[in-house]
Amino acid sequence: MGEPLLEIKALAKRFAERSGREPSSWVIRDLSFSVQEGEFLTIIGPSGAGKTTLLNMIAQIDAATGGEVRFGSETAPIGDPKALRPGLACRIGYVTQDDHLLPWRTTMQNVLFPLSVQGRLNAETRARAEMLISTVGLSGFEDHYPHELSGGMRKRAALIRTLVYDPPVILMDEPFGALDAQTRTQLQADLLRLWNLGRKTIIFVTHDIGEAIALGDRTLVLSRPPSRMAGEHAITIPRPRDVRDIMTHPEFAALYQRIRAQVQ
Amino acid sequence: MSAQGGTIDAHGDTAPLSGRRAVVLGRLALAALLLIAWKLGTGLAGPLYVADPILVVQRIVADTLSGELIRNTLVTLRLSAIGFALGCAFGIAVPFGLRRLPRLTAAVEPYIMASVGVPKYALVPLFILWFGIDDAPKLWLVGLLVFYVVFIAVFAGIRSVPRGLIDMARVAGAGEARIAREVIWNALLPFFFAALKIALPRAVSAAIIGEFLVGNAGLGYMIESSRENFDTTGVFAGIVAATALVLAINGVLALIDRRVNRWRPVEREMVI
Fold first, then answer.
1. pLDDT at residue number B267
2. In chain B, positions 175-194, which contact chain A (CB-CB < 8 Å)?
3. Is B267 part of the contact surface with chain A (CB cutoff 8 Å)?
4. Are A34 and A205 in contact (CB under 8 A)?
5. Which among A86, A105, A145 has the least Cβ separation from residue B171?
6. CA dist., res. B149 & res. B197, Å (int)
7. CA A83 → CA B154, B188, B190, distances in Å?
8. In CATH, which of 3.40.50.300, 1.10.10.10, 1.10.3720.10, 1.10.760.10 is domain B53-260?
9. A155-167: per-residue pLDDT in tens?
10. Chain A contacts in chain B segment 137-176 (CB below 8 A)
11. Worst-scoring range by mean pLDDT, A17-21, A59-63, A111-115, A247-251?
């Protein structure tokens, strides 16, 4: 292993105080970890553990209060929201918990949105968008508006909207959280298949232990706030994995129990 | 009108006619009733106070044929349109400019909100004093009325844009200009069109009131000069023409709204 692609050191975050309120307590304090290039890292933690806040700071849409967030050779500004560079020049993609599809754009137009704002719309990238749309089973829904799609379809559209411009790092914040078990498993399988096409670095936040094991190369466990590292587990289940049958793998139960003991 | 339509609608299932035809028939019947009431009103109050509807129709036809009515309508339309365009342009530009200047916004906001409370019609004498008796004072009146309606809607619309959409666009590589044009503008279009539904009829009303006071052409002038000559039929003809103008403008607006906002999930909206 060489130099990590992303490094978090002694990260700390508390939200700005507001008048008439108690000074806010630390959401994250003294959190350190690193991510290798091409690694699928899953992060698990109880709700309120600052998982979304952590991803927001890595994506640079929120500023850390202290510590260091280093991506390649660049460090994110600390405590200065105005100096943030969201998505750090399109190298960090972010699939948020809500799909944030633009309601006035059709599925295809939404998928093309990043390419269009980056000035990279051409025959080649359009073909890639069409390929991704058919890979995740959205063919025939290209001209539908988001409100005409099901929850699972919207998630798929949001996912490939990030994949289409090929950022080397992708952050995912419980992207399949609000879906039924069936759709969820299907999307997890889709995601692993897409990830296998070109191994991106993925940081995937979830509160579902099974999902963290099924998808990741490594799982980090966060503690209750102020969050810090509660545990780290290498997921040695070999790939390619079948997410439908992952529970029957002999290593699954032991991993599940070890992680479960740390998630409080 | 809605109560009447509702009753007919409710019985539409049992009637042999289709529901839609029943509604149309109901509306026609209501129109006939209103005309009869108008005619009765003429008899009761006398033609000096309530003009005879038949004479009003004859006057509208005659004035249309002579070109007088169309000329006056165009004068009012032109005045409303220019004033509207000016008010609208500033009503959009100012909140978009303030968006990037939160401290300036916080400083001027109470003053802007207080100035909303100034009755704009009360300023007309000042406008005449300052800008003379040509189109300028009327344009100021129309423009200011439109400006405030559009400004408040766009200002509120900008604040209502979901933060997540803007963050998503930033992460995807969109610059500030692109975010303003694509994300914020589209997200506030429903607010904007709601404002237009109020601002457009107001623009015409303000133009007409301006014409009561200043100038020698337009529907407002036509109504006011008819009144001065005890020509109540002319007053009514002017009111009918003004109403038709507003309804025509609303119709065009509804068409544009349907086209621009066709992505919106809600199809049901108030039709004026």
1. 53
2. 175, 178, 182-183, 186, 189
3. no
4. no
5. A86
6. 10
7. 28, 27, 33
8. 1.10.3720.10
9. 999 999 999 999 9
10. 162, 164-165, 167-175
11. A17-21
